Amino acid sequence: MTEARNQVFPYPNHCDNLNGCDLIQNFKTFTALLVKEKVMIPSIIHQTWKDREIPQELHPFQASWKRYHPTWEYRLWTDVDCRKLIADHYSWFLPIYDLYPQPIMRTDTARCFILHHFGGIYADLDYECLKPFETLLAGKDLVLGCEPHSHVQRSQAQTRGFDFILSNAVMASVPGHRFWEHLFKSFVGAHMEPNPLDTTGPFLLTRAYLEAPDKSEINIISPEDLFPFDESEVWEAGTKRTTLPPPPGEAYGIHYWQGTWWRKTKMRWYASRPPKTIDIAQTKNGAGEIIAIRTLKSSLIQRILPRNTPSSRSPPRISSPIIPGILPEAVNGVWYQVTHQNEVVASALLDVKQILRFLNTLDHPPLVTALMVTKGRTALAQRAVLNFQKQTYPHCELVIVNDDEDDQLRTWVQSLADTRIHLLNLPTDQRSLGVLRNIAMQEARGDYVAQWDDDDFSHPMRLALETGLVLLHNADACFLQRWMLWAPEQRRLAISHRRLWEGSFLARKVTIPPYPDIAKGEDTPVADAIALNQRTVLLDYPQLYTYVIHSQNTHETSHFEKFFAKATAIYESGAYDIAIRQLQNDFDIDLSQWIEGQPACRYDHPISGRRSRRSPALASYPSILILTPVKNSAADIPRYIHNLHTLQYPHDKLTIGLLEGDSTDDTYEILSAALPQLAVDFHAAYLFKEDMNYKSALPRWVPSEQRRRRAAIAKSRNSLLMRSLDNQDWVLWIDVDVESFPADVLEHMLATGKDIIVRHCVLPDGRTFDLNTFKLEPGATSWDWSPYLIDGILQPPIGWGRNYLSDFPDEDLVELDSVGGTMLLVRAEVHRHGALFPVAPYNNLLETEGFASMARDMGYSCWGLPWLTIQHPRK
Q: Which residues lie below 8 Å from residue 802, measured CB to CB, with a gap of 6+?
């Protein structure tokens, strides 16, 4: 009996009286001590950095932790280490972790999983330890600190209703604390939030605490103890404590708020990545001295001041960038940068809907005045006025300065009875365009003004989006980095290269200097001055503005030729018609009059000889087997069949092979009905059915789905190839949902003489669609790719070590390391010799990527035609 009781109560002094209160109390005390020992915060210091090469300026802060905690274990976690922890112990979170669009989001979440798994202290590398933390942590299970009170007074915190903000820069915890599991649920719920602060950062941490079921387990430390100085105090002092006032005696450390994730952030562009700087001309002061220069050596627009000019380094006004979940194909996702005095301080992906919602929350949105100058171009001016009336931003007006005494435009404007439109007719005089713009500026009543040229088009959301971005980031101006170029008579539509496009600006009126008294180019120095001196948003949304090239432009024809030559995308032939229809829909204006009848510039030379290719004359027409696996493609089949018929290649040399599998619609029935006519129109046509038994409710792009999904596609390709290939010379793989391609696409691909060739598949807005087609960056084969090896296949972030066809706009032919299957031409002997589509990882690649790797290992090479585009619909 006593033995049994001793087994139940392992306390050194037992008592036979089970009701003995001393024993029971002693046992409770003893077990409490045991529990206390089990949950003490471990003596481990955790810090994170992208790799082992910590910047020199952070070394003193890192050393301070070791100096005051000499017996503690120290762990530096790299990006690779963090991802491995997630993959090994929290694999359920890996899809979200990998899809975060910003590294800071992964860093924010990783530190919390580290503390949940190991316990200890986490500290940012820009946090300096001033004394040992043992006293602060004694007897506590979880320690979080409040940011300085001044941070709570900022608009971002006020609009969220916070009375305090919890920082994730320094945290301490026992392993397995249940608050972390509560926080992990918040990570999942907020992973599509656009702002990193709300997605994974302090704002999310604060909300999670407010919603925690048991706050008594969480110890909140005052700012005086952990964060004695706020951002502005530290920025003014730099990173040397000697330049700061003495910290309070109770302070355990100083956070220097370096914010490496949002200060001077370099932008990673999706698909067609930009050059490393925005192409802006030099800016000179009144004495002719260069005070700003743009260089290709840096991602920043560098600012140069004369030696006798004092440098003002007041901290820029930083606003957190808006970055939704990584949905690169989403129509509402567009990139932008924020600059302060020409220095990039943030870069982000814009959620259009969020900006519009933000505008709707404003009690007193500002008045925006659109300024238009015109002379003797009544039809164009009327079109511009109608375009203005389509603007969705309601708080706007249009000021028209008409340098013409003709009353035709005045009469027409009066007939509109639109009180937002104000027309000023001037007596005929020899005024320059710069002078006229200054007159318009004087007539503006709005706090913000936008340039509104009479011969161009603005998207209905232009004023709303530019105004919303300026207000959201407390900026002074917004410019477009790219816009559309339209030459109606040439039947050419293009997306420009990246630069600061003067005519696209919206700016705070008081920041705009006078226009110079010149006839053309008057807006360039004004735009440069704004960008140099103000806080500016640089928006990459070309569809917001279409510059129209016609016979009455102020610049000569050669001025526009170079823009088309540098264009990041050009729409021609069938793609042009599709793009113009989209333009009409976007502007909600009938463009037929200008599409057919407006005079345009007459070019002395082709706009881009490289892009104006005649169909090559082939010595012979080899037989081609066209193969397409299909699934749930009922809506795409009519267009697919139509596109096949538009090919100018001899149809009697073309055989069509189709394989349907796993469809839940009537794809197979539609193809069966179409098959007899296909067999008549082409050399032969075959239809097969084979289910691969792949079904998933998850989105097609989720990393965890890629191995199963692409393996199923590879099986379909191999099965279709084995059943269809006879004695044909070539095999052409085409995706069923390709929207359009040139009629002579086969002639161009065959004319290269290469064994494996792909063309450039783009979205309607000109961005690259086929990200399986790429060329590795120099030296990338020696990189450590293990962090991106998911389920045995490589799934790196977009652009990581890979250049896409959009990165080679000036190349005729590019040798590739991988190919996609949207339109892939393969010499049949390559397949016959054994190069198929791997259903299991081959060199960590599957399907078309694996095929390219296998073919290269067999001695073949893969090639791409950057200039030869086919179009894929946005899905």
A: 771, 774, 775, 776, 777, 780, 796
For 195: left if phi > 0, alpha if psi spans -120 to 50, otherwise beta; the answer is: beta
Query: What is the three-class DSSP state of 514?
Result: coil
764-790 core/surface letters (b: 16 or more CB in 10 A; e: else): bbbbbbbbbbbbeeeeeeeeeeebbeb
Cβ 692 vs Cβ 712: under 8 Å: yes
Nearest to 827 by CA among 734, 728, 713, 761: 728
Torsion of CA 261, 467, 546, 514, to 10 degrees: -100
- How far CA 563 is from CA of 7, 57, 791, in Å, comes to 87, 43, 45
Cβ atoms of residues 772 and 849 within 8 Å: yes
**Closest by Cα among 423, 422, 424, 419 to 394:** 419
Give the tens place of pLDDT for each residue, 729-741: 999 999 999 998 8
Residue pLDDT, tens place only, 769-814: 899 999 999 988 888 888 788 888 998 877 788 999 988 988 999 9
Q: Quick one: three-class SS letters along 524-588?
A: HHHHHHHHHHCEEEEEECHHHEEEECCCCCCCCHHHHHHHHHHCCEEECHHHHHHHHHHHHHHHC
Count CB-CB contacts under 10 A for residue 423. Answer: 19
Domains of the chain, earliest start first: 2-36 (no CATH), 44-255 (3.90.550.10), 350-484+500-554 (3.90.550.10), 624-871 (3.90.550.10)
Q: pTM of this prediction?
A: 0.39
- Strand, helix or coil for residue 779: coil
How far apart, in whole angstroms, are the C-alpha atoms of residue 70 and residue 132? 10
Bridge partners (DSSP) listed for residue 505: none
Structure tokens at 500: 């600061």
